[in-house]
Amino acid sequence: MSEKSSIFNSPKLYSFDYFAACTVGGLVACGPTHASVTPLDLVKCRRQVDASLYKSNMDGWRQIVKNEGGLSKVFTGVGATAIGYSLQGAFKYGGYEFFKHQYSQLASPETAHQYRTGIFLAASASAEFVADIFLCPWEAVKVRQQTALPPPFARNVFDAYSKMVSKEGFASLYKGITPLWCRQIPYTMCKFTSFERIVEIIYAKLPRPKSEMSSLGQIGVSFTGGYLAGILCAVVSHPADVMVSKINNERQKGESMGQAMSRIYGKIGFPGLWNGLAVRILMIGTLTSFQWLIYDSFKAAVGLPTTG
Asked: Solcar repeats located where (predicted)?
């Protein structure tokens, strides 16, 4: 390693600079990618709240452009999305690398390798628990902006934040934290663990070991593994994703989380938990593959090995 090791110049493995670099990589990977699919997310969230609102995604975009003031309105919620998922990505990816290393140190290298799937699961769950604390307020703002009908709820993300806090209190930004954890923790456990094992399988099938492959070849493996992992993530987390949208939009004042979930489930039933699944698979598969592409490209650019 270079004696001038730093966050952006071959940081020493498992040093403070290493985890800081992974944190920056997570921010860069998640904020822009989530923001870029805001039009998909907007229609998905509205159809989760009211399945009869639009006949299809194309119909949704057409109606939004026609009735709400032009093409820019399909990006309703983009500010909150960019802020929230930049913070979440930073703590998720950086936290995962940190917890994976810490949990691996609790056992011998042989034992850690043998039980690596358990370590992947525990590390990703720990990282996501922390990351969601930073995501939750902005997710609440985003959902309110996207699902308030008739729109607009506010002029921009900061106006929406101010309105929610002034009218409902700061605690209102965290009323969806439990369903968010229920959605995001299984999602991230699936995302990181399936990715690690999928790329492991891919490398085992290739004619050359990973150490002899170019950075571009390794990043290609990351992209492929990321898309396959994303499909699994979408299915695992979708019911909780529907419930997050419903609770942030419909939870009544003084109603407990359990009461809100029970009331909403009684209204939409089990089939209602799967509204918008197809578009979520498209959205999450694309998101996950590009996030791993960007994250591992960033790691390679600063002199770190790619994941897996």
From this structure: 17-102, 115-201, 217-301
Number of domains in the chain: 1
Q: pLDDT tier at 28 (50, 70, 90 boundaries)? A: very high
**Residues counted in the chain:** 308
Per-residue tokens: 15: 């040093």
Residue 137 lies in a domain: yes
- The CATH number linked to 229 is 1.50.40.10
216 occurs within a structural domain = yes
Instruction: Give the HSE-up count for residue 210: Cα atoms under 13 Å, Cβ half-sphere.
Output: 15
- Dihedral of the CA atoms 145, 129, 122, 13 (nearest 10)? 90
The tokens of 279 are what? Answer: 């578009």
Question: Which residues constitute the domain of residue 139?
Answer: 16-301
Give a yes or no: residue 124 inside a domain: yes
- Give the DSSP letter of residue 172: G
| Cα separation, 291 vs 191, whole angstroms | 11
Question: Are the beta carbons of 85 and 287 closer than 8 angstroms?
Answer: no
**Mean pLDDT across the stretch 136-144?**
95
Q: Which residue has the higher pLDDT, 109 or 44?
A: 109
Task: Tell the burial category of 207 from Cβ atoms under 10 Å away from its Cβ (0-12, 13-18, 19+).
Answer: exposed
Does residue 7 belong to any structural domain of this protein?
Answer: no
Task: Please name the amino acid found at residue 63.
Answer: Q
Q: Report which of 102, 143, 131, 178 is spatially closest to residue 27, judged by C-alpha positions.
A: 131
Q: How far apart are CA 61 and CA 180, in angstroms?
A: 26
- The model's pTM is 0.84
Is the bond leading into 179 cis (omega within 30 degrees of zero)?
no
